[in-house]
User: Which sequence fits this backbone?
């Protein structure tokens, strides 16, 4: 039988997204309106009203291509992060940024370093360019930055660091990150993936974009999919020095961020009320979920994102078994066996009633 494409592409296991509500309704004969989805770390408040208004206005021009360079969105980001506009690369979600970085800096056979239990797309992006993955064992389900620095080899071109990390929720403080950056060779690009940055408590927040001025090999990646509530619009961005953004923009697809996404992102960027509301709900929801896990005697990883990783059994079938029991009750969460965590489930923090529905369903699923 004729085979098409290179071996490293055929070896890729496609990314498995969280189950859509409609699919679960069809599969289990449920009413969509009763289903609770806590699988994909989405913002339970949805799209902010400010973004809805901006999209309504932008809709009049949908017959025309979007601004390929995203001038107005870059200008807003430039002001917000105090960097020049040409230090910004726009992405179709931050997932696009992660892929662009791999294509821009890694050739076939060269190595990429990332942590065990880190975002699945790091491995997929590495495989997609024929790169060689160096997966560094985690410590307490989080990044071991000293070991990651030591794992860098002469052919290493890229390092991915997620902070907070998905799916485990672990967090690395500013001093540790900067110490790591000082160890990384100047010819190795570091992608600091901060998709969940906005959920950090004030005492943990730091403006990593300022480090870009000091480290020419640093890319800071952010997204509007989580705290800003724009997951369905797919808009993310990277901040890096021009020598890096120039290469990334040579790889980036033209018109990769559509007109509605650009308009919505500009409006959401400075919607402080929406962000504050989300942060408050996230804090309360975290307390609600972890209190239930404590009551049930379940181990969980302390999280700094908008989700919690919880162990639901000791055998390798535990995660799949409890997940199925939850699905039958109309509750969608995220199995993480693909990350090497078959006894665990990742639970997104929802609205109070959504969390309560999940907790009651979990109690039944656990028997």
Assistant:
């Amino acid at each position: 039988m004729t085979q098409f494409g290179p071996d490293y592409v055929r070896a890729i296991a496609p990314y498995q997204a969280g189950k859509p509500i409609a699919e679960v309704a069809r599969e289990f004969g449920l009413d969509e309106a009763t289903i609770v989805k806590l699988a994909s770390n989405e913002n339970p408040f949805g799209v902010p009203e400010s973004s809805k208004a901006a999209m309504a206005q932008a809709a009049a021009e949908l017959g025309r291509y979007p601004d390929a360079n995203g001038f107005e969105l870059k200008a807003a980001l430039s002001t917000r992060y105090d960097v020049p506009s040409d230090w910004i690369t726009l992405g179709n979600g931050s997932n696009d940024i992660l892929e662009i970085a791999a294509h821009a800096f890694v050739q076939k056979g060269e190595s990429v370093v990332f942590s065990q239990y880190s975002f699945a797309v790091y491995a997929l992006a590495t495989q997609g360019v024929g790169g060689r993955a160096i997966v560094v064992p985690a410590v307490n389900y989080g990044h071991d930055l000293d070991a990651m620095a030591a794992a860098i080899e002469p052919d290493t071109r890229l390092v991915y660091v997620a902070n907070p990390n998905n799916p485990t929720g672990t967090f690395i403080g500013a001093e540790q990150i900067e110490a790591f950056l000082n160890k990384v060779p100047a010819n190795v690009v570091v992608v600091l993936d901060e998709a969940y940055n906005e959920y950090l408590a004030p005492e943990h927040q730091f403006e990593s974009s300022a480090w870009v001025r000091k480290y020419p090999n640093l890319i800071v990646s952010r997204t509007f999919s989580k705290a800003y509530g724009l997951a369905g619009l797919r808009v993310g961005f990277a901040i890096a020095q021009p020598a890096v953004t120039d290469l990334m923009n040579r790889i980036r697809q033209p018109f990769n961020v559509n007109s509605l996404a650009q308009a919505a992102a500009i409006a959401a960027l400075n919607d402080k009320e929406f962000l504050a509301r989300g942060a408050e709900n996230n804090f309360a929801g975290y307390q609600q979920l972890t209190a239930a896990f404590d009551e049930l005697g379940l181990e969980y990883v302390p999280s700094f994102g908008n989700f919690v990783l919880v162990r639901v059994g000791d055998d390798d079938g535990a995660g799949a078994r409890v997940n199925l029991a939850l699905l039958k009750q109309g509750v969608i969460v995220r199995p993480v066996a693909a990350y090497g965590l078959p006894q665990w489930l990742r639970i997104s923090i929802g609205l109070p009633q959504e969390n309560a529905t999940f907790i009651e369903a979990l109690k039944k699923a656990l028997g």
User: Anything to note?
Assistant: The first strand starts at residue 36 and ends at 37. The mean pLDDT is 95. The longest helix spans residues 272-296.
